[in-house]
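Can you give me the bound-state structure? Components:
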Amino acid sequence: MIVLMKHDTAPGDIEKVMEKVRSLGFLPHAISGSQSMTIGITGNKSRIDTDLFMSMSGVEDVIQVSKPYKLVSRDIKREDTVIQVGEDEVGGKDLTVIAGPCSVESRSQILEIALMLSEMGVKFLRGGAYKPRTSPYSFQGLKEEGLEFLKEAAVAAGMHVITEVKDTETLPLVMRYADILQVGSRNMYNFSLLERIGEQRKPVLIKRAFSATIEELLMAGEYVAAKGNYQIIFCERGIRSFDPLTRNSLDLTAVPLVKKLSHFPIIVDPSHGTGAWDLVIPMSQAAVVAGADGLMIEVHPDPSVALSDGFQSLRPDKFKELLERLRVISPIVGKTVRAPQSSTLVSNN
Ligand code: PEP
Ligand code: MN
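Here's the bound-state model for the whole set.
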């Protein structure tokens, strides 16, 4: 159920509604926009009587939600949610560009690429330290050392860190290094991990499982929001199909659909979505035109020696070309792409 508060409700009235929800043994979620304030109620096993709230001061309306997700839904908030990451945003006017190698491989590899990317205007550095690989014999990541290298490189380049959390066990450790937590495709259905992330107060990017429907993706977000973390970014990264020429089929329909159904931002990962580096530029362009809030792109200083996903990683010169194209295309859909930096900030501490 959603309690819609009147536009200029006094904070005291909002608190009274929240208290009432708690006294019934449920959890209140205050979701505010610049034009609206709604209180989502979770934790109830059956329908709540709307009259319990309808007569309370400041209440405009009480709406029963029939969808299996509520807090991530547009029903609770009409306007887009913008996620704040330091001084930067995801879901705002700037197209969010997340780039970096599939895996952190060494201190010099991640530092080299971070400095290059930062100079090109990129603010979000990706790199896996805990890699959920299909084969147990494939490179599993540098683990904590990888997180250290990643953070060090990001600080030196003035960037934010996004990296995957593989399990609940390593969550506290990853929390210390990441600015955005990444839930991988294989973990989208890991409900205990989602709930633990929901208890944190850090942005989370949830990648669509390659077998998930859009509703299932939204419900993964709902697991996080239901625990009180409202900093969610969805990511379309391709679903499994029948064509052997691509690793996955990038489902760009997810972009307008998620934007229609949810107030949270959605970004697109055309690297995993296609599995072929030469398809990354065209599909990135298509994603932006479809209305994506951002892109996640695998970039490696030398993809031919990459320890994972080299075949789908762009070389820095190709990535630069992509950014130049995006700077031309993005204004058509009301987005901007950050300009290259004249010099890169390098600090040793
Ligand atoms: C990744 O981003 O490196 C990754 C493993 O992606 P996915 O979970 O989408 O396969
Ligand atoms: Mn990868």
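A couple of observations. The radius of gyration is 21 Å. Confidence is low (pLDDT under 50) at residues 344-349.
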